[in-house]
Design brief:
Helix content is 63%, strand content 6%. The two termini are 24 Å apart.
Length: 131
């Protein structure tokens, strides 16, 4: 289900968050399905339960999951997590555009790069370019 990459420089909770979000987005975890308990997933991944708890909290904040007190964590309906995903993408895009502006990169160059990445993503060329 989830594999932790110990060579990855990102914190473990970010990796867990990303992997679970991917499973939700691709449909491997269906709407309203129950996620493993914090303790159970922590044992499976050989990580501290606080790591899983933090990942679940992040996923809940982004709208991918919801919690029911005493019952566990569940995958939200796709409309809920899609709006959360759009908010996260908008936040990330704003951050990148701010960095580009601060570095003095011309707006037309930024627009060109965004367009190119979008077109490559649509056609599946992005993966080939990174291989």
């Amino acid at each position: 289900m989830i594999v932790i990459d110990y060579r990855d420089k990102r914190p473990l909770y970010e990796q867990v968050t990303e992997k679970l979000a991917h499973l939700i987005i691709c449909g491997a975890l269906e709407s309203n399905s129950r996620l493993p308990s914090v303790r159970s997933l922590a044992m499976d991944l050989s990580v501290n339960p606080n790591t899983v708890q933090r990942a679940y909290a992040q996923l809940e904040q982004e709208g991918f999951i919801y919690s029911v007190v005493g019952r566990g964590n569940y995958v939200t309906d796709s409309s809920e997590w899609q709006s959360g995903m759009l908010r996260a993408l908008e936040r990330d895009l704003r951050e990148l555009l701010t960095k580009a502006a601060e570095s003095g990169m011309p707006m037309d160059m930024v627009c060109s790069m965004v367009k190119q990445v979008y077109e490559n993503t649509e056609t599946g060329k992005e993966d080939a370019a990174h291989d």
